[in-house]
Each structure stands twice: as C-alpha cells, then as structure tokens.
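Follow-up to my earlier ticket, as requested here are the two runs.
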Amino acid sequence: MLARIWTGLKEHPLHDIIALALIGIGVNMALVPQPFVWPPYVRDIANDHGFDYAFVVVGIVMLLWVVSKSHHEEWDAATLALAAFLMGTLAVYQFLHVTHTGGFMPWVQDAAILALIITLAVRSDADDVD
C-alpha cells in the first residue's frame, strides 16, 4: 500500500505540487480573518469559508487521484478544470482587489500556479501526464 502511494507521488510530481498548493491556500484563507474588503457587496461572499474549503477538497481529490490504482483521465481532467477555475477566480479577484484598494494580495503567485495547472492540463490532453 505505501509502495503504491509512494510510486504515485513519484510518477505525478506536478499533481502533487498543485494539490498541496491548493490545500495550503485553502487552509491559509480559512485561517486568515476577512482578507477581502472590496467591493463591499461581494465582501461577505468572498470571505465565506465555503470557497476556502473548496480549495482543500479539490486538493484532496487530486491527491487521491495520484495515489489511486487507476488514473482515470476524466477524473484528472475534472480536478484540473476545478483547480484552474478556483485559481483563476482567486487570481483575478486578488488582482482587482490590489488595483482598487492598493493593499497587498499574492495574485502573482496564484497566477503562476494557474499557469502550471493549465500547462499540466494541456499536457494531460496530449496523453503525456507528468
């Protein structure tokens, strides 16, 4: 069992990195009180912990795909699409937050993770999963 898990982790390092990044971002956003203050009518939705936990769930599902016996392409495509949606939404919202409030938000690193997810998804479509 541990050998299979270790093999899955070694065979899909980019999936591992993305999954752990999603989990870390989700946990960090859940622990930071009210990171978003703009715009006022979206603030409560943006600071809702449901969005934070979605990151954690998608990261866990991606890790489960990595350690599973069979690597279904549909499962991989779905998790990569969800991860891209979450990271894209977060990066754009953080960028808009920075441009309108002047505060600090780590939108550049989130955009970099989004680029990694998109690159991995394109490679996965070409049957060349990391």
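Run two:
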Amino acid sequence: MHMTAIDDFTAADLPAGGFGDHDPEETAEWSESLDQLIDARGTERAGFIMRSLLERAGSRRIGLPLATTTDYVNTIPAGDEPAYPGDEETERRYRAWMRWNAAVMVHRAQHPEIGVGGHISTYAGAATLYEVGFNHFFRGKEHPGGGDQVFFQGHASPGMYARAFLEGRLTEEDLDGFRQEKSKAGHALPSYPHPRLMPAFWEFPTVSMGIGPMNAIYQAQSNRYLYNRGIKDTSDQHVWAFLGDGEMDEPESRGLLQLAAQEKLDNLTFVVNCNLQRLDGPVRGNGKIMQELEAFFNGAGWNVIKVVWGREWDALLAQDQDGHLVELMNATPDGDYQTFKAESGGFVREHFFGKTPQTKDLAADLSDDDIWNLKRGGHDYRKVYAAYKAATESKGKPTVILVKTVKGYGLGARFEGRNATHQMKKLTLEDLKAFRDHLRIPVTDGQLEADPYRPPYYHPGMDAPEIKYLTKRRRELGGSVPARRGGHGEIKLPDPKAYDVALRGSGKQQAATTMAFVRLLKDLMRDKEFGRRVVPIVPDESRTFGMDAFFPTAKIYNPGGQNYLSVDRDLVLAYKESPVGQLIHPGINEAGAVAAFTAAGTAYATHGEPLVPVYVFYSMFGFQRTGDSFWAAADQMTRGFVIGATAGRTTLTGEGLQHADGHSPLLAATNPAVVIYDPAYGYEIAHILRAGLERMYGGSHPDPNVMYYLTVYNEPIVQPAEPGGLDVDGVLRGIYKLKSGAGGGAKTQLLASGVAVPWALEAQQILAEDWKVSADVWSVTSWTELRRDGLAAERDAFLDPGAQPRTPFIAQQLAGAEGPVIAVSDYMAQVPDQVRQFVPNRFATLGADGFGFSDTRAAARRFFKIDSHSIVVRALQLLAEEGKVPAGAAAEAFRRYRLDDVNAGASGNAGGDA
C-alpha cells in the first residue's frame, strides 16, 4: 500500500474510481449477486463458491493478491449491530468516576514526598474496553459456569483499582497505598497485576510484555485439557487477554497463535488496544498496525474483528457511495492518525478530509467540533459490545478484536496521543480542572486548588443508583473480577510405595539420573488417585529423556485425537495422540511449555483443581531461554517440578557450546520461588520429590507456592540403593555425608553435587591409596538452598543482635570435619562458591568455567580440571600449604596424572544418549 506523509498526500495518490475500478456498474452487479447467494443459500455455500472461483482463477493464470486484510472500517456494519443491553448513560457516569479516580490515584502517588510513579494514559484510553466487559461479559467465580479468566493489560491496573474502589472492595486509604507496598502495609496496592503481591485480587501477571498473550493461549488450552480429561467441566468459561498493539511486536505475542487455531480454542478472545502508540512513539508511523495484525491473525487461522470507528462516522460512511472516504482511511498512515488526535477539528478538516474534493464535501456540513467528536471505535459502547458478543458466539476459532483507541483519551491536550504520554505521571492544576470538566466530576475548583497534589477521589456512596446498578451487574455475572482464590479440592498424595523404584537403585544395571527420575515419575503417574493429576510437559525431547514410554499409556494430549496412520504404529513405544492424553507435547517450543506449566501449576487456584505439572527440558534451554516466563510463573504462584535434563557442562559430550549447561543453577537461583537441587542418585530424587509434593499440597508448609528445579544427567552409572541410616534431613536441606574417609593420615573434605559425586568418590580412593590422605565425601544436593539458609542465619543475627546466632546448616553438618574443603560440580565455579562464606574450613572450588565444547566426557572434565585427578591435586595443594603433606606432593601428582593432558582424563564413560 502506498503511504505518504500528511503534507505530501494529494488526491492523485488515490486510485481512480476507488481501487482502480473502471466499470463500477459491473462491479456492483457482481456484488449484488454475491449478496443474493448469501441471502438464499447461506454463508457456508457462499464460501464454497468463492473458494471454487478463486481456484478457477488460479487455474486460468489470473494473478490475485492474497486478500489478508479488509478495508480500514469496522468488521461489523452498523446495521448488523445488536441492541446494547445496558443503560449507556448510567454506565458512562460511573466509568467517568473510575477514570477520574484512576488518574487521581496515580497523580497522588507523585506527591513530591512520595514520587513512586504510575501510568495514567493506558487506562484512560482503554476504559470502554474494560467497562463493556465488566458490565456484560466477564463472569466471576460465583457464576454457575465457573467464571472467566481475564488477563488485564498491565499498565491499565489503576483502572481495575478504581473500579474495585467503587465496588467497595478498596478504600481511599488503599488507593493512597499505590506502589507503596511496605510503607503502607495493610493498605498497599502493587504497581501492576502481581498475584504474589496481592493474592486475593490479581490472578495473572501480564506486565512483562508478551508473556500475557502466550499464557492466555495456554490457559485456554489448559481449560480444555481439564475438560477433555474429565477433571473439571470448563465448557462455559472464557479466557480474555487485553494486549497493547506495541506489545504485539514481542515474539511471544505472536509466536504461539497457531496453537490456538489448531486446537480451535473458541474459548479465547484477544482484545488488542490499538492506540497506535508504544512507550516512546508510534507503533507503525509509516504503516497501519491494525491492518498488519489483521493479516497476521488471519494467516494464523483466527477470527478477526476490527473496531475502528465510533457511531459518529456511520452517517459519513453511509454517504460514501463511491468509496473515497474508505480509500482515504485505507491510505492514511498511523503516524498521521496519531497527529490528528493531538491537534484539532479544524486541523483534521484540512489535513484529512481536505485531501480529496469528495471527502471535503462529505465533511462540509460538520463543524470543527463535530469533526473533533468523530470518535474512534474503542470509545463507543455499542461498537465494542457488538464485537465482544460476536467473539463469544464465534465457534471453531479463537477471536482477536482489534480496537482503535486514543492513548490518554480525555486527559487533555498535553496527554492525548502524545509520544510522551506513557511516561507522564501527574497532571497540572489546569489539567485536573479540564479533566474534571470533561468527565463532569462534582469536585470544586476550591477542592482542587487547596492541594493540587491531592485532588479528592470521588465516590457517590454505595446507595447511589449508579453504584447499585454496577454492583447488580457484577452479582448477575458471578461476582467481582479480578479475584483470586487460593483454596482447592483435597489431593491425596502418592502412596509411599510409589517411590520404591528409586529407593532400591538400579541393581547391576546402569541408569542415568534422568532415567531414574523418569522411572519414578512413571510410578507416580500409576498411583491410583494421585496419578491423574500429574501433567508431564516435554518440548519435543521425550525420546531423548526416555519418556517415549509414556506415549502408549499416558498418551499425548491432542483435542483432535490422532487422525493419521502413525509411521511407528507397530512399535511398542509408538507415538499416540488422544483427546484424553495426559502428556502435553508443545513441540520445539520452550516458551509454550512454560506457559502450559504455568496454567497447570496454578489450576489449584484458577479452578480449585490441583494439578502437578512436571516440565522436563534440555537443561540449557530452561532458565536461560525462558527465565522471564519462570519469573511470571513465580508471580502467579505456580506449583510444580521443572527438570533440567541432560544437565552439566561436560556430561552431554558431543553436543557442543550452545548445549553445554554450566550455569542454569545460578540463573534459577535469582528466582526466590525456585527450590534448586542437583541430585546425584535416584534415591535422593525420590526424597526430594516426596518432600516437594508434601510442601506444595501437604497442607502444613507456610510457603507452598514454589517450583522445584532438579538437574538430572544423561551419564549412566549404577544407581545405588538408599543406604541404611540415610540422613534424609541432610538430603533435603542440601548436604549429607555420603562416605567417610578410610584410615589415618591427613584429612580433607570433598563436597560434590550431581554427576560430580562419582568423581569425588574416585578422588577419595586415589587419595587414600596413592597419598595416604583420608577424604570424606559429601553429597551436596543443593548449593543454593545451603546459601539461602546461610544468608537467612546471617540476617536473623543482624535483626536480633542480642540473640545467640544460629549456625548455618552447612556449618552444622561440617562441624568437626577436618582439613580443607574442595568443592566441585559440573557447573562453573560460582555454583559451589555460593556456600564459601559459611564454611569455616579453607575452601577451594573447581568449576567448568568458560564455554562448553564437543568432546568426550573424560577429556572435557580434564580440560576444565574438575575430574577426579584434578580434585586430588587441588586437595594436595591445600594440604601442603597447611604442612599436612610434603611440599612437592601436588607437583608430583600433577606430573603423575598428566593433568595438563586432556587425553589422560579418565572420569566418566561414553554411555548415554545426547
């Protein structure tokens, strides 16, 4: 499409006759024929005829552009709009009060003594979009169908607080606690939709842009999953996601649209607030974002509804018989539309309508005020209601509603449509007066002038007819929205026997910890009562992790079933899809997998039905790739297990740099809701999983809203049975003594985690046999949990200086342990270094720092100096410095074991799949 700037645009830029039509009469006859066909035979038959004609045109070599967009007008014609079911004037009055209170709340938070910020303009422009939903569509938790899930646009949160204030859910003192969560504790509101910070109010965190759209898609999928598997009837629940047009540039916003179309999620509606602006400027100054999104969503298989113009345009469009106005609308770029809303009616007359004689004549009888009052569709109740109604009645497809609005609508000339409006947090006295007048708020000049930083909120009282109308509508729709409930139905945890497979070890067979975990998971899923609540989630690596055994029994969830002849149907572990499948398989799609994990892991609150998601992924592609999504999952108080399989920097052998994970535990440690373990053996995994389930759903832990992150490896070893007298408390808290050193001589302590524990045991034997050094080996199941415990002990001592300080758990465990400590893992040195400050002994770390590479495990471990002989040499160095072994022992060992030769490494084997 040809786009020009305002000053360069002329009538010559428009095609003659509208779209280059040289025979409008013939065109009209064809259009009339199509109308008659639709009227007589219906849309399905008309669609078939149109597809047949297009195919015929193609066979006759007629070059046709793919029609992915429609004219820049409303999808639903004025004549097809349903009657508005509410009292528009009443709804407008309290919508004005909400807009005033939302702006005043943010403005008061900018008092010079506070200055915590906020966003005024997003809700000002989107208020109609929300109010039509609140008054007529959004169903609360008390609705017989179970209620809807609404993902609110993050920057519009002041509007939700303002509505809750009118409903009586929040007080003025609460509004004055906006963004002051500690200093106004008890009367505090978080900046954005943060369930963790306001757990009875918000359900879905959305302000990390792009995560809301994909989480909404997978929430809609999760609703269907619950229904298809017979866990809960969600057939009358709808998912709404309110998004910004600038937000749609995030890859996550568009990258998962195909799932919603493939699974025919007609229980999902996106509402894209197209105010044509992102945070700093226009979304598409030279283009048209609504048209771009229409094409994109059409191509993805969605139902698209555009709400472009308000009712004031209807008469003009009806008079536009030759299409000149529509063509002008089509040709005008978004940058110009933004400018028009920042200017005046006279400016619009000259620079828009004045582009062609025909459109100039159309507007001739309109005053400048009339032209200025030609509203965008997103500010018209009737237009928005028609779109919402059509969306909820559409079947077989998800729907996106593209709604044109003005950012900062009604806030005055300094705000409306300005590039800087997103960052503007307060109003001048003149702004306040103008905004008050625009909204007709019964606040006097004197009240505003008394303290311009603290203009009054407005509430007419709960007995006012408008408030009675408002609350009645919410009662009829099932109660207030948003609202979150933490209660859930009872969940019976697995029988202790379900853990036996991991506790008894692998006998004479070798099995990697990944396989030990998968075998345990399979038995947990077999548990008669608990098993159906497990939701395994794997992004196209099931066979890599040995989880193809789940295919024929648990099956892969697909609401459409499996309508093809599987190529591996004769195999025992054949691929099998089913509407009642338990395994969620999002494909090569870690972002979608975390979204599915979040939806399942919050079903206890969203639906009152606990699910236990178990997301198994390539370790490197977990927190590194989707850390922001895990942060949102933590905000939403997701519960479940995330399993970083094929973990470690040297264990994956041939995969190379981008697959070699040496740092994920550090990335995960930045998330306070993630409990991190690096287990060495299957029996450790069993105790950790059992403790995790008890914490999440046992009912006694003060903080059940956590995600357990376990790193597991693909290197096969003989999995030992649980030793007698195992220190289970040590396993769960982070460290226990695995094997004491033999004999006398110098003492040292070897701390190792995960796949490094066997190297430490090798080093223990070498030290005893070659150097007469007695080394104790400790299995560190969690460096991070030990660090968190140590920091907590220090903080307790800091806050209660008169009390006897608590000894960190790791120091308690190592009490009396002699000699220097050597800490090692298959991660970079920073991972074991997390505990250095809490260990009283001399401390040295061996780590796999730097980039990974492709090689054998033994060679890689020798290169990074983390293998058994490296542990021996480092221990001898520290012991020599303490005078416990001869001064030259370390140098002699270095030469004897050829520590500088990567081909001399011997720690590890070549088994296991990559």
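The only thing I checked on run two: Confidence is low (pLDDT under 50) at residues 1-19. Let me know what else you need.
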